[in-house]
């Protein structure tokens, strides 16, 4: 089922819950002629967005005292970057999605991609992938939990990654040094470099506001990076400096979100 149909069904589920106050998984599966597994994924996604509350066997309307405007976690620019990144992914690709809010924006755009194999070191990314109807094959790095990056790191994770090869890596950054590459506050940079080593294409997703932030820890040098996807705020000078290193630069227009 297409992403558009998924969104339409979820919108209809919210309307039904608000009208009836309570609905069951069985009732929704029959009404929409789909599986109970799909409905449970819908309810999980809707609850995550604060649109209803799940209960055993179904869902209830959000109590009025709890109804608040859903916070916009992903900026317009991040959505534009995610859309440009998703356009590079083909059916049956083997990809890595690193932890981070910008890379996480990719997930909702993968509903129409078939046969994907996705490796991640992020529980948040893994949970979001598990909600997709396209049901990509999900791989986890394992390793040691790092509270700073909210992801798994360490030698175990690196060893697992080296057992595979991937078409693409999608990774963010705390900063971009136009002379050196991506920079980070986190001193645990080993896994990021292994991710790049085992990927044919390394795609950095970062907002233009982070370009010029020369944070001490160099994460990925320009020689390891294939493509930088950013927003329309990137200056012409910065773009030229980055392209000088042989990196393709894509500036995603905000008006296409």
Report a brief summary of the structure.
This protein has about 260 residues and is α/β, with parallel strands linked by helices.
Topology at a glance:
Blueprint: H1 3-20, E1 22-24, H2 25-32, H3 36-48, E2 52-55, E3 58-61, H4 76-86, E4 94-97, H5 101-104, E5 117-120, H6 123-130, E6 137-140, E7 144-146, E8 151-153, H7 155-161, E9 166-171, E10 175-177, E11 181-184, H8 190-197, E12 199-205, E13 217-221, E14 227-231, H9 236-243, E15 248-252
Parallel strand pairs: 4-5, 4-9, 5-6, 9-12, 12-14, 14-15
Antiparallel strand pairs: 1-3, 2-3, 7-8, 10-11, 11-13
State the end-to-end CA separation: 21 Å
| SSE string, helices as H and strands as E | HEHHEEHEHEHEEEHEEEHEEEHE
Helix content: 25-40%
Q: Give the low-confidence spans.
A: 65-74
Count of helical regions: 9
Question: What does this entry look like structurally?
Answer:
The chain is of the alpha/beta class and 257 residues long. Helices cover 33% and strands 25% of the residues. The protein contains nine helices and 15 strands. It has helices at 3-20, 25-32, 36-48, 76-86, 101-104, 123-130, 155-161, 190-197, 236-243; strands spanning 22-24, 52-55, 58-61, 94-97, 117-120, 137-140, 144-146, 151-153, 166-171, 175-177, 181-184, 199-205, 217-221, 227-231, 248-252. The strands form four sheets. The protein has a seven-stranded parallel beta sheet with strand order 6-5-4-9-12-14-15, sandwiched between helices. Strand 14, helix 9 (236-243) and strand 15 (248-252) form a beta-alpha-beta unit. Helix 2 (25-32) packs across helix 3 (36-48) and helix 7 runs parallel beside helix 8 (190-197). The protein is elongated and about 60 Å long.
């Amino acid at each position: 089922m297409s992403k558009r149909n998924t969104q339409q069904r979820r919108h209809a589920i919210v309307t039904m819950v608000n009208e009836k106050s309570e609905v069951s998984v069985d009732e929704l599966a029959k009404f929409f002629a789909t599986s109970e597994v799909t409905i449970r994924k819908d309810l999980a996604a809707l609850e995550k967005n604060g649109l209803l509350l799940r209960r055993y066997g179904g869902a209830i309307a959000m109590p009025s005292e709890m109804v608040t405007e859903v916070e916009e976690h992903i900026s317009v620019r991040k959505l534009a970057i995610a859309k440009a990144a998703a356009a590079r992914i083909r059916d049956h690709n083997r990809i890595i999605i690193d932890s981070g809010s910008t890379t996480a924006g990719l997930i909702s755009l993968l509903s129409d991609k078939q046969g994907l194999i996705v490796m991640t070191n992020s529980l948040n990314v893994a949970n979001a992938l598990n909600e997709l109807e396209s049901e990509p094959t999900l791989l986890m790095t394992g390793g040691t939990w790092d509270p700073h990056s909210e992801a798994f790191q360490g030698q175990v994770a690196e060893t697992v990654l080296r057992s595979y090869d991937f078409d693409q890596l999608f990774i963010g950054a705390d900063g971009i040094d136009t002379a050196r590459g991506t920079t980070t506050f986190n001193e645990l940079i080993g896994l990021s470099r292994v991710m790049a080593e085992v990927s044919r294409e390394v795609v950095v997703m970062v907002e233009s506001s982070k370009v010029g932030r020369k944070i001490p820890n160099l994460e990925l040098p320009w020689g390891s990076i294939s493509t930088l996807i950013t927003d329309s705020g990137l200056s012409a000078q910065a773009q030229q400096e980055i392209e000088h290193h042989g990196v393709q630069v894509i500036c995603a227009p905000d008006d296409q979100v």
